[in-house]
Design a protein that fits this description.
Elements (H helix, E strand, L loop, with lengths): L5 E2 L2 E2 L7 E5 L3 H6 L9 E5 L4 E3 L13 E3 L1 E7 L8 H7 E8 L2 E2 H10 L4 H4 L5 E3 L3 E2 L9 E6 L2 E7 L7 H11 L7 E3 L7 E2 L5 E6 L3 E6 L2
Parallel strand pairs: 3-14, 5-10
Antiparallel strand pairs: 1-2, 3-4, 6-9, 6-15, 7-8, 7-14, 8-11, 12-13, 12-16, 16-17
Helix pairs in contact: 2-5
This protein binds zinc ion.
The site of zinc ion has 6 residues, from loops.
């Protein structure tokens, strides 16, 4: 089923475009995977066909090795951004939500070793469970707390103050390379604590004081 963008429980006037993601934006997560912390944001994309509604139980691939969750704050873009300043970027963020950047970790490790692109590990159908969005007004982008629990155990507990490239510089950087359009979504990176999902897992994800999603793996 096609993912439908919503803002404050109303249909968003634009369809979902591309999903731009940043790798290794929290140093503790880069370290847990033995990756060097990049000097510049490490960008990749997922197509709109990757998105599914996070609120519904979602499927994961079962025949391609481990599928890791990465819980991330998602930003819904409401204004075009092309070589934008941080101030322009701030005005263009219309909504905030939650995303799982699902990653076929074994596949990705093989691709990395070969120096190949990551798409088949990161951008497959269903690789981006995405929540409904809420209005982003008044949010301090430098202090958003994010939690993720799996089967009642806290797995990820991060704060956007620990981002290597914070939200506004990140959007400005992305827009130097890819124009962002209304309906595009940006995933801002994952804190430490990523791990494999299994069928039947119960998941609670929270942007503290902003929104909360309880869901499950099919
Ligand atoms: Zn990620």
């Amino acid at each position: 089923m096609k993912y439908q963008l919503t803002l404050d429980n109303k249909p968003f006037p634009h369809t979902l475009g591309k999903i731009v993601c940043v790798g290794r934006n929290y140093a503790d997560h880069a370290r847990e995977l033995d990756n060097p912390v990049p000097a510049e944001p490490l960008l990749f994309m997922k197509p709109a066909t990757a998105a599914v509604a996070m609120e519904q139980p979602f499927a994961i691939p079962t025949d391609r090795g481990s599928c890791h969750f990465e819980t991330e704050m998602a930003l819904l873009i409401g204004e075009p951004l092309h070589r934008a300043s941080e101030m322009e970027a701030a005005k263009a963020i219309t909504g905030v939500g939650l995303a799982f950047d699902l990653t076929l970790r074994d596949v990705q490790s093989t691709l990395k070793q070969k120096g190949h692109p990551w798409e088949i590990a990161k951008a497959f159908d269903g690789s981006c469970p995405l929540s409904a969005f809420v209005t982003a007004r008044g949010i301090d982008w430098q202090n958003v707390q994010l939690h993720m629990s799996r089967n009642g155990d806290l797995q990820q507990d991060g704060n956007s103050s620990h981002m290597i490239t914070p939200v506004l510089p990140l959007l400005s950087y992305i827009s130097q390379h890819f124009s962002l359009l209304p309906g595009d979504v940006v995933l801002t990176g994952t804190p430490a604590g990523v791990g494999p999902l299994q069928s039947g897992d119960q998941i609670d994800a929270v942007l503290v004081g902003i929104l909360q999603v309880s869901t499950a793996v099919k």
